[in-house]
Automatic annotation (TrEMBL):
It comes from Chryseobacterium jejuense. GO terms for molecular function: DNA binding. Coiled coil: none annotated. Residues 254-311 form the HTH luxR-type domain. This is HTH luxR-type domain-containing protein. SUPFAM superfamilies: C-terminal effector domain of the bipartite response regulators. Keywords: Membrane, Transmembrane, Transmembrane helix. The chain crosses the membrane at residues 31-50, 56-73, 80-98, 104-121, 128-147, 167-186. InterPro entries: Sig_transdc_resp-reg_C-effctor, Tscrpt_reg_LuxR_C, WH-like_DNA-bd_sf.
Length: 314
């Protein structure tokens, strides 16, 4: 159940054939956009417990608005809308910190917004938006610091319990916000690095296969390697089409060969290592090693024979 909800949030408004890099960006933005709405509503409910009804109404309306944008529109992908949202959040931080007194610690939220800005505006075309966000944060903070005033007093803002816990609550929420954003940034970076490594590995596999086949145009190696790396169900039919002799020869050696065994043979034929096969099929390395051992028994291949050299002779 949780997995389905998570997938719904992550993949909202994302086309099935989206480019891998664009997919990573879109998924991170989905999580970020949903988190904004959820955090606003949570903070509103928290303030309601302390009797801050105005805070509750403002945050609730904003939270519902952003969740509405998340579920029903794609406007969040517009960088101008995102920039406006961040500017609005900083104004709210300035407003509430000034209203309840600068000493409440709400200015710590500026750092969350600044980190969020780096997370969102990380391309050459949008990186300068960070300057706007940082300057706005500096201006608002400076005004609050040098002119510690209250725009107007909110009833309940002097609640003793609220005052005692304000800094602690603020710190914990800022800590959580920075941690979540840090997680988004790191996972995005890890996925980009993984894509880059896959691209390099793909190029090497294709180059090695071209050398063995001594052909550059007859076989769509790029396409078949991509299918293999994506663990696409079209991989096996494609291999049969591109290497018709491979399947027939293997069937002559073992008429009971299963589809999984042929798939493993095809991956070995393409030069995928045990680690590659495990990674792209989402299996453990030990599982692939076991399957290779079974493949040897199935085809009567002795332990001293290199599978990769053997498959080239089939």
């Amino acid at each position: 159940m949780f997995r389905k909800v998570w997938d719904c949030i992550v993949n909202r408004h994302i086309a099935p054939n989206t480019d891998p890099l664009e997919l990573i960006e879109a998924q991170r933005m989905n999580l970020f956009a949903f988190s904004i709405g959820a955090v606003l509503i949570f903070n509103g409910c928290r303030d309601l417990l302390f009797g801050l009804k105005i805070n509750f109404y403002v945050l609730l309306v904003l939270g519902i608005f952003y969740l509405f944008l998340f579920f029903f529109t794609k406007v969040r992908y517009n960088h101008f809308v995102t920039l406006f949202s961040l500017e609005l959040f900083m104004f709210l931080i300035f407003f509430f910190s000034s209203t309840t007194g600068f000493e409440n610690g709400l200015s710590l939220y500026y750092f969350v917004i600044m980190l969020a800005s780096l997370f969102i505006f990380n391309s050459k075309k949008t990186v300068w938006y960070n300057l706007i966000v940082y300057l706005t944060a500096l201006i608002f903070f400076s005004i609050s610091h040098y002119y510690d005033f209250r725009i107007f007093t909110i009833e309940g803002a002097d609640n003793v319990l609220f005052s005692e816990n304000q800094r602690l609550i603020t710190f914990l929420q800022v800590f959580l916000g920075v941690s979540i954003l840090g997680y988004f940034i790191l996972t995005k970076q890890f996925k980009i690095v993984k894509l880059y490594q896959q691209a390099l590995r793909s190029e090497k596999i294709i180059a090695d296969m071209r050398t063995k086949l001594n052909s550059k145009d007859q076989i769509d190696l790029e396409g078949i390697v991509k299918l293999a790396m994506n663990d696409d169900i079209a991989f096996v039919p494609k291999v049969k089409q591109m290497f018709p002799g491979l399947y027939d020869n293997l069937m002559e050696l073992n008429a009971d060969m299963s589809t999984d065994e042929f798939k493993l043979c095809a991956l070995i034929k393409l030069g995928f290592t045990t680690k590659d096969i495990a990674e792209y099929n989402h299996l453990a390395v030990r599982t692939i090693q076991t399957r290779k051992s079974r493949l040897r028994k199935s085809f009567g291949i002795s332990a001293d024979v290199d599978l990769y050299k053997w498959i080239d002779t089939v």
